[in-house]
Structure formats: structure tokens, C-alpha cells
Specification:
Layout lengths: L2 E6 L2 H13 L3 E6 L1 H9 L6 E5 L7 H10 L8 E5 L4 H9 L4 E4 L4 H14 L4 H4 L30
Parallel strand pairs: 1-2, 1-3, 3-4, 4-5
Length: 160
């Protein structure tokens, strides 16, 4: 279960996206605008992904995106832009600024899921980078009762 933040000024849209996230088995937290979300980040609360509206009063979603990309803790945070803006120039600008995906309102659950998968994939670490500290285990150091037996040629995975 991933922790996903929704940053939007439209409470109805927030409720709709929260429902979709619940159906997709993700935990969600919402912020009515970028400022409360920025305060949470400055306090050390970092989500797994942010769904960010563009058109909000006072501080735009693009300003929030720039804030996220400039901070060490959030520069690699997956971000999905969600907006009523469908112009190619707006989409290109958001992507150039570091958005991983862009979907327009109204959004379907399938569109949101695809955008989120794209954003997560864009920030996935290669296997070698994720598991750099693995060490070979000497079979003699593992008790026989803890070893996994598996016959070569079986089609199913090893059973303990």
C-alpha cells in the first residue's frame, strides 16, 4: 500500500480521487492547496507519490512541482499532474518541469492508475542499486531445518 497525497483546491475532486485510491488499495491524504502540503514536507512527512492540481489560488501546482524538484528529499518523488488544462503547451511545460505523468479532469480510475504506474516506474531503482548490500550466505551457517528444498524441473516456486 503506497502513501499518496492529493493536492487540490477542489474538495469534490479530492473526494473522487480518494475513492479511486481506496479502490486501488492506496492510502491517501489530501491537502487543500500547496502550502499545507509544503509544510508537511518541511516537517519531514514524505509520501510515496503526489497527485497535484495545476490551477490553484495563490500558489500554483507548477510552483509546488518546482518546490518538490528543488528539495533533496523530494527531487525523485513521483508526481502526477491532474488538471483541467489539456493544451499541449501546458502538458509539455509540466513534464519539462519534472512531472512524471499528466492526466486531465475528469479522470477515470484506469487513467489514474496508468499515470501512477508510469510515475512509479520513472523513479524505480534498478535491481543492482536497490540490492547493493546483499552478501552470499554460506550454506553451513544456515541450520538444515531452515533450508529450502526444491527439486530442479518443478514448475512451481520453492516451498519452505
Amino acid at each position: 500500500m503506497k502513501k499518496v497525497w492529493i493536492v487540490d483546491d477542489d474538495e469534490e475532486m479530492i473526494r473522487a480521487v480518494q475513492l479511486m485510491l481506496r479502490l486501488l488499495k492506496h492510502e491517501s491524504r489530501f491537502f487543500l492547496g500547496p502550502r499545507p502540503a509544503a509544510r508537511a514536507i518541511l516537517a519531514g512527512d514524505i509520501p510515496d507519490l503526489v497527485i497535484l492540481d495545476i490551477n490553484m489560488p495563490e500558489v500554483s501546482g507548477l510552483d509546488m512541482l518546482e518546490f518538490l524538484r528543488r528539495r533533496k528529499e523530494t527531487k525523485d518523488l513521483p508526481v502526477v499532474m491532474l488538471s483541467t488544462e489539456a493544451a499541449d503547451v501546458q502538458i509539455d511545460r509540466a513534464i519539462a518541469m519534472g512531472a512524471d505523468a499528466y492526466v486531465t479532469k475528469p479522470v477515470s480510475i484506469d487513467e489514474l492508475e496508468t499515470a501512477m504506474q508510469k510515475a512509479f516506474k520513472a523513479h524505480a531503482k534498478p535491481f543492482s542499486e536497490t540490492y547493493t548490500n546483499l552478501h552470499r550466505v554460506d550454506r553451513g551457517s544456515v541450520p538444515a531445518s531452515s533450508r529450502v528444498a526444491w527439486k530442479p524441473g518443478l514448475t512451481s516456486s520453492p516451498q519452505a
